[in-house]
Amino acid sequence: MTKLIPYQMYVHFRYRAIHWPDMPASRRKGAQLAIPKEGLLDTFADLDDRPDFTEIRCGWNDHGIGFSFLLPAFDRKKATILLDQPTSSTGISLWLDTRGDRTGHRATRTCHHFHIFPFGPEDDTPSVGAFRIARALVDAPLPNTENLILHCTPQQSSQLWEIFLPATELSGYHPAEFSTCGVFWRINHHTDTQLAGTTEEYPYDNDPSLWHSLELVPPAKS
Fold first, then answer.
1. In the chain, which ranges are E strands?
2. Which residues lie closer than 8 Å to 201 by C-beta, 6 or more apart?
3. Which of 34, 125, 148, 179 is the most exposed place for a label (fewest CB within 10 A)?
4. DSSP SS3 for 218
């Protein structure tokens, strides 16, 4: 029998982002985040028998928040690169609400959308873009993407993509006062598409209530 509603939508996921002080606090070419396995975010794709080809980790500190995505290498010949249409483009889309209460259906000034393009339209240069969210009550200020840190490490047949979002580029990012964020991702790969807990029929790209909660775990006391 065909499921009308994905099983994952019956559950509210509350992920935990570890405090990881070793992440870069400023923009450095070639910088790596090296988020440990304790930062793993379970995709729970098995609940709906959906593809699970990505290992996702997350960490935070006062300087910003970082994510890593380990997945099969993107294929340049099979890639679709549309710099003005991120959700239709090959790559990794990431939505983040720095003050995520998961109750509103429209984005606010603390909701952000980023997309990692594994290639350029005409070359192999990766990049990260920032985009406005449709139907937002208030648009978040678009960050200066030159200040975002993007790094890719080839690993045999896979790639490790790491992105660090500095606090200076995230509207509303104040971990000491607001320790819960909202997060959602969409990975558009030539082998398949992986979503964080819903299907393409739902407006995850502009409805923050469909995103997951992300708790910023306080640093351990010494």
1. 14-19, 40-41, 55-61, 64-72, 91-97, 111-117, 127-131, 149-155, 158-166, 180-188, 193-195, 212-216
2. none
3. 125
4. coil
Query: Any idea which residue has 């350029």 for tokens?
Result: 120
pTM reported for the whole predicted model: 0.91
Per the listing, tokens 């790094």 go with 151
pLDDT of residue 100: 82
In this predicted structure, what is the pLDDT of residue 1?
45
pLDDT tens digit string along 102-152? 788 999 999 999 999 999 999 999 999 999 999 999 999 999 999 999 999
By DSSP bridging, strand 55-61 and strand 14-19 are: parallel
| CA-CA-CA-CA dihedral for 134, 161, 185, 7, to nearest 10 | 160
pLDDT digits (tens, 9 = 90+) for 48-67: 566 678 999 999 999 999 99
Residue 187 near residue 54, CB atoms below 8 Å: yes
Locate tokens 């775990």: which residue? 217
124: DSSP letter: S
The pair phi, psi for residue 61, each rounded to 5°, is -155, -175
Query: For 7, phi and psi rounded to 5 degrees?
Result: -60, -35
Average pLDDT, the chain: 89
- With beta carbons less than 8 A apart as the criterion, state whether 91 and 118 touch: yes
